[in-house]
Amino acid sequence: MASEELIYMPNTNKNKKANMNANMNVKPKTDDWHTYLLELQERTYRIEWLSSMADQQIMRERILPMLQQYRPRSSEDMKLILPIADIEIRTHREKHAFLITGYISITLETAGVAHPDVLYAPCKSINYRSVEEPKEEYSESGPKDAFTESLNVNLNLIRRRLMSEQLHVRMLTVGSGKLPAAVVFMADNRLTADRLIYQVEQSSIDHPKALLDISNFATLLYNGKHTFFEPFEFTELPLQTVHMLENGKVALLMEGSRKAMIGPASFEDTFVASSDLFLPLPQVRAIRYARVICFVFSLLLTPLYVAVATYNFEMFPLKVIQTLLISRHNVPFSPFVEAFMMESLVMVQLEAIARLPNKLSQSAGVVAGIIIGTAAVEAGVISNVMLVLVSASSLLTLASATVQLRNMLFLLKLPSLLMAMVLGLPGICVFWFLLLSRLFVVRSLDRPFTLFGFNPMSRYFKGKG
Fold it and tell me: For the residues 171-195, what does the mean pLDDT come to?
């Protein structure tokens, strides 16, 4: 006689039939492990699942009615009648591994004896947010959709924009949590994709801990272990991902992550924004020239102030030196301490704003900047010139095209100030020499991260990057 109600069996197994087959059934060790016995005359179907991972509605609508109607005699018969794709038939030992990934196990028992094979049907519960506007990479032109935490949704967003037979997807798992991931690439870039897949597999072996996000996983890759610069790009825009794929790059997507990792990356790509795709070529050239200038001067303004006020004041016109000395007349700190305090305060302010809700962050940033800056000048803690230079340097930094470049600039300002304090203008030159030397060493997927040759830079300024 068919049972119409769900019978839940918690951790303690009280059923005699289950005790008879204890050697073939996995003992539940978690409270969200549930069992339902469907008894149909001489056959019993033991259905097990994790309520935190499986969708019980699929079981009620697709599995139970088919079992009650056809009463299959084996796992192979169940596979034929169930309207579910990707069904697996394995042993009892693999039950726990399947259940934690959202599968439902069905074990057929005849006269109290369980069959040796178990049917596993995918019924994963999917609870993700819908496609929304991007949170970090704002673009005034183009589509307004961004990646979500669902791997299948993200792949759909890419394929909708690139309906080509040359687009390939390689599925794999990463970490001890066996998170599903996908490497997306064009057919012409198979070697690059194989190189990324190899590094992903090696990192999963060397670092088997559970992963939090794709950016966390990127630090475990071979190229990202011992470098200050990130050798991969991260984007939340499907359009930007498709653009990179068409330009010979590969993308890594991961379940639970709302960003795509792009490689091989180059230093020139950090100056490219998604809005460049929708602007005329003359405007793109002008904007990219401006971004390079902003990058250089964001690292030069405050170190130049420290160098001039400390060592090299004789290299500048007398009126400039007089303005600096007058503004610093009542300041009790050295130029380096003055600049270090202001730059550190800007970094703390940006970090605090990032932790506030969007409605409060903008107003809090403006109010904090005005109040702190005005109060510091009136109290004689900093000079007017320093306040202007730090504000301009922060604006130049925030003009960066990518979040990675923006964060890198804020961190590079402190060592540049230190070199300017120690050696003056020669110290700034030494800092740029070390910076460029390090950039030339970094590699992304075994390719140089920085190429300052004529061809790469000409492609960048022509708007082809």
Answer: 89
Contact (Cβ atoms closer than 8 angstroms) between residue 156 and residue 128: no
- Residue 97's contacts (CB-CB under 8 Å, 6 or more residues apart) are none
Q: How far apart are the first and last CA of the chain?
A: 69
Could you report the per-residue pLDDT of 259-318, keeping only the tens digit for each?
Answer: 999 988 888 888 888 888 888 888 888 888 898 899 999 999 999 989 988 887 777 788
> What whole-number distance in Å separates Cα of residue 191 and Cα of residue 195?
6
**Separation of alpha carbons 242 and 238, rounded Å:** 6
C-alpha span between 436 and 421 (Å, rounded): 20
Q: Cα-atom radius of gyration of the chain, to the nearest Å? A: 30
Pairwise CA distance, residues 170 & 294, whole Å: 39
**Cα gap 289→13, rounded to integer Å:** 71
For residue 53, what are the CA distances in angstroms to 222, 224, 254? 33, 33, 18
Q: What is the largest CA-CA distance in the chain?
A: 103
3 state SS of 330? coil
CA distance 394 to 301: 10
Amino acid at 57: Q
Exposure string for 406-426, b = 16+ CB within 10 A, e = fewer: bebbbebbeebbbbbbebbee
Q: Is the peptide bond before 264 cis (omega within 30 degrees of 0)?
A: yes
**Cα(162)–Cα(186) distance, integer angstroms:** 10
Quick: pLDDT tens for 201-241. 888 777 767 567 787 777 777 555 556 778 888 999 999 99
Is residue 75 within 8 Å of residue 118, measured between CB atoms? yes
Q: Provide the residue ranges of all domains of the chain, joining segments of one domain with +.
A: 16-122, 151-265, 277-461
Instruction: Give me the pLDDT at residue 48, please.
Output: 93
